[in-house]
Amino acid sequence: MVLDDDFQKLDLSNNHDNNRILDKHGHKIKTDEFSISRGKTNKDKANRATVENVLDPRTMRFLKALTSRGIISDFNGCISTGKEANVYHAFAGDTISPFEPKTHDSFENLVNTYDPYSNPNNNDTILEPRKEYAIKIYKTSILVFKDRERYVDGEYRFRNSRSQHNPRKMIKIWAEKEFRNLKRIYQSKVIPVPKPIEVKNNVLVMEFLNRGDGFASPRLKDYPYKDHNDIVHYYHTMIVYIRLLYQVCRLVHADLSEYNTLVHKNKLYVIDVSQSVEPEHPMSLDFLRMDIKNINNYFERMGVAIFAERIIFQFTISETLDNFNGNYSNEDDLRMYVKNNLPLKVPGKDDAEDEIFRSLHLVRNLGGLEERDFDRYTDGKFDLLKSLIAHDNEKNFSASEQYNFEDNTLSNDDDDNEDDISNSDPDNSDSDDSDSDSDDNDDDDKVDVFEDKKDKVLKGKKYEDKEEKKQRKQEAKESKREKRKTKVKKHIKKKLVNKTKSKK
Ligand SMILES: Nc1ncnc2c1ncn2[C@@H]1O[C@H](COP(=O)(O)OP(=O)(O)OP(=O)(O)O)[C@@H](O)[C@H]1O
Ligand SMILES: [Mg+2]
């Protein structure tokens, strides 16, 4: 299908400068597969969906603006058509690289005689190759937008975006978000990313990562690893980058995978940071766990001995690392630390504990603390998430500990009930009795959640003899009476939680 025909069919109902723009520049826009090599480029068999989905007249106007401002000089073929955006190849415009060939001959000729090291001015200085750009153009179809909102909602930087329900405006915000995230990572100089050049509405211009023969550098998924050690190197690098993104760039990628990383000049480049969020985002820790799980799944499939997810999570969010003497921003130092200090995953045991870790409701500060966790907090079980995660992993995440926690919580709930009763009549000895009854019921249906269901009846306290039971009840009552003395009263708790919430 010839490109021109295709543009004729574009729905240009409003017959004004759009037509003129398209007529004037339409022949330059190639949307077929991008293959810039010595061989003939196949005639433009524009993919109708590509043209209509992405290169609508408004987008064409933005491209024209970028061309006339000299940011880009030629718009070539399509590198990738994704679910959210298409990525095209372009050359930098005059304003950027003074070594543009002065003669703007036909694009076909330019493409076929492409030689990045050509010397158009025929003088003997070696010229820089012509700068190439990747142009990421977001699709404006509303459907795609549905699952993006959770990344923008709760994002401090976009709190004022009233345009949650105007997809065009949301696309603009989305592209700007990717540009800003790219810029922040690029300027941090700790993680390689394509250099961000410009963003205009739904069009993002960035450095094109060329593998040297005009084709795009491969995604990690398609990268031809040298050997097993090479795979392990990229696994450790990926883990270090997750930490550097969090600690230095204050970002969680939220879609980190072998598809959104490229290997360029033997370095791992991170791309597609449109959905990345800051640690303050309400779901940042869930996205972080998802990224870790995805990376682990990929490298486990590649035969790498991986680390447990919660170990990687702890490595990521702990500000300081035990026995680390290197530079916290240096990837080589951190990679060495990962290699020599993180314990490898123990199949079976770690699987169960990672399962628990995935389901944990992780809180970042008191504001996110649920009432029942509050007791655990006041009882010194943990303070904020950092201590919950950072030290003594086994204790916090061993299945038995988790069970004891549940157990304590239930007993804390008892305390609360007791608390209510004792509030009303602190000296009422009945409360002890009623308490003992409720304690009795609770005990009976309190089963070991990690035991197999079938023998739960045998495990209940129904089957212990009377004497022992009496003894146990007495001790339980004593310990509860002791605890009540130091217990934070409910109304004080509420005050504390409200106070910290208002401080946020
Ligand atoms: N700067 C770049 N240099 C070279 N290739 C790039 C660049 N940016 C993106 N690409 C290529 O385009 C593909 C899609 O880019 P990106 O992931 O940012 O868009 P996307 O909308 O998320 O696409 P998908 O939905 O397929 O993930 C990448 O996998 C990569 O192969
Ligand atoms: Mg992507």
UniProtKB/TrEMBL annotation:
The active site is at D255 (proton acceptor), D272 (4-aspartylphosphate intermediate). Residues 399-504 are annotated as: Disordered. Mg(2+) binds at N260, D272. Residues 447-481 have a biased composition (Basic and acidic residues). Its EC number is 2.7.11.1. GO terms for cellular component: cytosol; fungal-type vacuole; kinetochore; mitochondrion; nucleolar chromatin. Keywords: ATP-binding, Cytoplasm, Hydrolase, Kinase, Magnesium, Metal-binding, Nucleotide-binding, Ribosome biogenesis, Serine/threonine-protein kinase, Transferase. It catalyses: L-seryl-[protein] + ATP = O-phospho-L-seryl-[protein] + ADP + H(+); ATP + H2O = ADP + phosphate + H(+); L-threonyl-[protein] + ATP = O-phospho-L-threonyl-[protein] + ADP + H(+). This is Serine/threonine-protein kinase RIO1. It comes from Henningerozyma blattae (strain ATCC 34711 / CBS 6284 / DSM 70876 / NBRC 10599 / NRRL Y-10934 / UCD 77-7) (Yeast). The lineage of its organism: Eukaryota, Fungi, Dikarya, Ascomycota, Saccharomycotina.
